[in-house]
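ingest -> validate -> predict -> emit
validate: passed (alphabet ok, no gaps, 307 aa)
predict: started
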Amino acid sequence: MWGAVSGAVTFGIGEVAKTIGSVYLRFVFQAYAHGFYNGIASELQGGKFVHGFAAGAIGSAAATFAGDVLKAGPVGQILAGGVSGGLAAEISGGDFIKGFTTGIIVSAFNHAAHEAAEGGGGDPPSKMAQIAAEAEAMRSRWDNIRDDGLLALDTGNNGIGGLSMGMSQAGGSIRLTNGVYNGSRFSLRHYASGWSGGSVAKIKTYKLSVYGSTLGRYSTIGTMGLGVYNMFSGFQMDGGMGYNFQLATTQTIGGWAGAFALGKAGAYLGSYFGPWGTLGGGILGGVVGGFGGTSISTDMFNHFRKK
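emit:
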């Protein structure tokens, strides 16, 4: 039953991802969406959220990397997703076989959801035409790198903002290792009581509310910085406070509002699946909210401007 459900959900995530133009945003969306769903599925089946999240997110990321960057083909993509999902589950304290299965499902249905379009025909262009086309393509690539880089920064910043809300919602403290006495091996654990660490093992803990507040301030600064850059770029294009400047201002406000609102909502809803669900929900809500807020504010701006 769960295999069929996971296949359907994973295929649906792949279909939604196809509508996202930016490679970086699509990569982030897929990783977090697969991770969040598999974390919830793991929790509902009696496992731990963090094990499912790690297997789903890392399995998705590895499959995308193998397919888009290494050009490994369907089989290589699916195997990369399975192996990395299993290793991620094992490292986070879960079961390799379950993680491997999750990674296989994610990468297989992700691959099935993408179709490659091919084209061709016509006479070969002249040498000068080839040079001109290559120069134009190079300029376009640099523009895309700049735009995608800014989008990746904005997406990451919204994710950090959502994480800060999740940390504040979850409360308590976490440890990253099992203590100096035990070899400082990676051992993630949440303490709802907010335990400050210590003991014979010399375990160090981190209060989520304190670090969440710090991340929230950095995210706000990042939002302001990216917003000022976009508004300045719009000002330069318009030679004043014209269309592009006003649009950039609206998008900055809309993106921040969306990330804040859905980050809060995601953290709240994720809290039903424990502290790791709270953190994952906050991150996913911040990313999706920022993207949605920017899109909605753009549509509203253009709508009212026409009147």
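Residues 115-121 have pLDDT under 50 and may be disordered.
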